[in-house]
Amino acid sequence: MAASTKELTANGAKVTTVANGADATAAPPVEPHVTAPPTASTLSSPPHAAVYPAGQCVFGEDWTAATLVAKERCKETTAILTFELPDTSKPLGLSTCACILAKFDRDGSAVVRPYTPISTNAMIGRFELLVKIYAQGAMSQYLDGLQIGSSVEFKHIPFNVKVQYPFAPKVGMLIGGTGIAPMIQALHAILGTADDTTAVSMLYASKVKEDILAQETLEAWAANSEGRFTCHHVLSEEPDGSPWTGARGLITRELIEAHLPAPTDDVVIFVCGPPGMYESLCGPRNEPQELKGILAEMGYTAAQVVKF
What we know:
about 300 residues; alpha/beta; Rossmann fold; about 15% helix; disordered N terminus
């Protein structure tokens, strides 16, 4: 039988909150046993909360190798890569929305890129990365060319922890491309926690309809959220005359006003996408304490906006 994400939990139990590296809601799990990689990715699973506090990731500040055990092409230019952890009895232990760093050496120089796994800590001994393959992308081309059994070095540093669950009562998400990865983590925590009442509104920008990542997952999660999660798409390069009836162009003030919560005290806005999106919406990603652009003009404060 194909292994699902649930089957990769310890003893099949659904973990909801984990403190100090141990399940805080159930008896200690039995030693997990993983015999084969899942044939379907975490994107095919319902929301599943498996929240760890910061500081529990199995990757520390030293580079550690993990082995590629599965590769699935989910779009023409996007792949889901599954890596096996050095200790296959443990989950990744990454806090919600945090990222890890991947590295390879090219001509004597290190190429390093951040990735947020799309799998949760319910997956034992493995984790999944959603990788967009760019023609001129050094890391993405390297990962795309990896053979099963090859290894990649990873590490995790405190700077890579941006925000912790639980979040504000109202969450707005402004997303572009593979910026969806940390939002999938956030949605797992929010929608997978039974007593969570957080309302989430997402604006997701892509070039064309075929570029929308995790579309089926987002639609299914929205349909089963009883109105707590909504997702609206905007396409910047969708051909004229296509059957697309949604918004076109870029994320604008008008779209934000129509679909995201207003700048009240109970709101947080997550921004994750390409550099141009940060410049337009909130100011550079490397200036987390400064807010510029459309969100500043609308009255949001720097404290209300998280730049991933």
